[in-house]
Design goal:
347 residues; 2 domains; Rossmann fold; alpha/beta; Dihydrodipicolinate Reductase, domain 2; 34% helix; 9-stranded mixed sheet; 6-stranded parallel sheet; globular
Length: 347
């Protein structure tokens, strides 16, 4: 697979670390509007072809697929251009800023017959994959209740950088700079974590969003700090289970933690993922009588990057695809409506 990298920021470096280890993948070009950032990135990864616009790269055309690592609001126009050029596309989350744009991308990709995949990175978490297998195998019985959380503390801790002075973080706090807050940034991750792990879809949603005061007048320089910092969400799942999902950037003591608890009539599972590692615990069978939890061993799983490369080679569409991401975006869009209207909505 001849791969084009679109956008050369921090996540691009992370992706290239993975792609460079996959046999049969050659990174043939990189695109960025910032010439200094482009040069530094291309030099680091020994990429010969360098473009300051996607149009230039498409005119050149000597690539099979692209990984789109541009800012959220740029995903739609750039991915549509790639699809029109007949290129396979791996797109960072969220697929688009809203459901109509995400649906347009989905339908265009399906009509063009190109491989389309969204980089929901927590699909790489082996304990989540194992939990889903156990749910589908009926080891928990009928699922009754699901809890999921995505906790970050970068509004409290400077471990990842200082949001007060760095544009990398400030834009994520400002709707005027394209942010839909924590809901738009990591909401799609935790919705996928919950629904995928519990092997079901979200059917109804009711959400509350909160923006806390962070600076005098709610503004730092050109950035109005008006995007949501925390959300809580109650959901009904298609399998009949009730769910509670929440996320916050104010979770002191949690740098970047996803947690999922799945409760069934025959047992329960807990998945925890932190920067330091992941784990799966279960309370199953006779252990349910004594509330005894035990660690469950899991084996490594292929990464999204490996599965994307395999899909391009085989022509077989992988998951999570654009349509899945668009459906999750619909839930996120409706969550914002439920906040405004204070009522539950059917997905």
């Amino acid at each position: 697979m001849r791969l084009l990298v679109l956008g050369t920021g921090v996540m691009a470096k992370n992706q290239l670390t993975h792609f460079s280890k996959i046999d049969g993948v050659t990174v043939v070009g990189a695109v960025d509007t910032d010439p200094d950032r482009l040069s530094a990135f291309a030099d680091k990864f020994n990429i010969e072809k360098r473009f300051h616009s996607l149009d230039e790269a498409i005119a050149w055309g000597e690539f099979d697929a692209a990984t789109n690592i541009t800012p959220d609001r740029i995903h739609h126009p750039t991915t549509m251009a790639l699809i029109a050029a007949g290129k396979h596309a791996l797109c960072e989350k969220p697929l688009a800023e809203n459901y109509p744009k995400a649906l347009e991308m989905t339908e265009a990709a399906e009509k063009a017959g190109v491989i389309n995949m969204v980089n929901l990175t927590y699909r790489n978490v082996a304990p989540l994959q194992r939990a889903r297998e156990m749910v589908l195998a009926g080891e928990l019985g009928t699922i009754k209740h699901v809890e999921a959380s995505y906790l970050q503390s970068w509004l409290v801790s400077r471990a990842w950088g200082d949001w007060r002075t760095e544009s990398t973080w400030l834009w994520r706090l400002s709707t005027g700079h394209g942010s839909n807050g924590v809901l738009g940034d990591v909401g799609i991750h935790i919705l996928d974590f919950a629904a995928y792990g519990a092997a079901t879809d979200i059917d109804h949603v009711f959400a509350r969003l909160k923006t806390f005061n962070k600076a005098p007048g709610g503004q730092i320089g050109e950035y109005m700090l008006d995007a949501n910092d925390s959300f809580t969400m109650s959901v009904d799942f298609a399998n009949g289970a009730l769910g509670v999902i929440h996320a916050s950037r104010w979770a002191t003591g949690h740098l970047n933690e996803l947690k999922l608890r799945i409760y069934g009539e025959k047992g329960s599972l807990e998945v925890i993922h932190r920067p330091s590692g992941s784990e799966l615990r279960g309370c199953l069978g006779e252990d349910a009588e004594t509330a005894t939890w035990r660690e469950i061993e899991v084996t490594p799983v292929p990464t999204n990057y490996q599965r994307f490369a395999e899909a391009v080679a085989s022509g077989i569409q992988p998951d999570p695809n654009f349509r899945h991401a668009a459906n999750l975006q619909k839930v996120l869009d409706l969550a914002m409506v439920t906040e405004r209207e204070r009522r539950e909505l059917k997905v």
